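Hey team,

Filing this mostly as a record. A colleague (T.K.) asked me to run one chain through the structure pipeline before their review meeting, and I want the input and output archived in the tracker in case anyone asks later how it was produced. No errors, nothing strange. Just documentation.

Input sequence:
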Amino acid sequence: MVAIIVHGGAGTIKKEERIPKVMDGVRKAVLAGWEELRRGSALDAVEEAVKALEDNPIFNAGTGSVLTIDGKVEMDAAIMRSNLEAGAVAGIWGVKNPISVARKVMEKTDHVILGGEGALKFARLMGFEEYDPTTDERLKQWQELRKKLLETGETRHWKKLSALIKEYPEVLRSTVGAVAFDGEEIVAGTSTGGVFLKMFGRIGDTPLIGAGTYANEFAGVSATGIGEVMIKLVLARTAADFVRFGLRAPEAAEAAISVATKHFGRDVAGVIMIDRDGNVGFAKNTKHMSVAYLREGMEEPYTGI
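Output structure:
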């Protein structure tokens, strides 16, 4: 039972007019991935679906990534196959599609994660051209939020940044991801611009295998939300473990989010996943998480938020 699912990030979309654009974005992404899946490759399907999300400036990944406290873009991405091959980039800039660079790390190196300048040098070696993912909208948001943060007089306190995250969740906590099953292997991929006004050098859960991205013989998982929560809970691997313990993807996703809620409260996490039988699962403890999926036998993708 072949299947693919994508997400556009967990959080709260305060501006209602953004919802149709978000829904259209995840729908187009899942259809882009489905075209590759029909050709037989879950790996290509995940890469193409995530690229479609990275290229859509409404999402916080690739083009439209949020800015660090000093006004720069530092992106993370990871991709993983059920045979445990994996590749990731952390804190990369100057490229259009971090998910594609992550795939090259998996295929062309003996490493799992390349970070910062090293990741950029590798991208150039692989032929990825210079690209500025900063948009005018993100720059304006950065200017407004940084001014607000500075006006508190306590810019070094994460407590203040947390308050901003709650006030502007639709732009501060967003990640994109995809999981696909082609009948033989499961592949998971995730990409993000991180958290708005994050400290330079901050790395979230997305490129950390087992935290924000994971795939094995039982399931593939992509997580979204507060990265520090996913890291501490190793949430993507936790969700896959629930399948190993006997749950199907829908129940495993709910179980993983229950763990996040128990330890860190609500409004922190969401996951999408597919198990080895092609079952699709997704769950969140946030108000919104845009999702689209297609399974064998469906004529049109399911979309929800």
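Quick notes for T.K.: Residues 294 and 301 are 5 Å apart (CA to CA). The first helix runs from residue 18 to 38.
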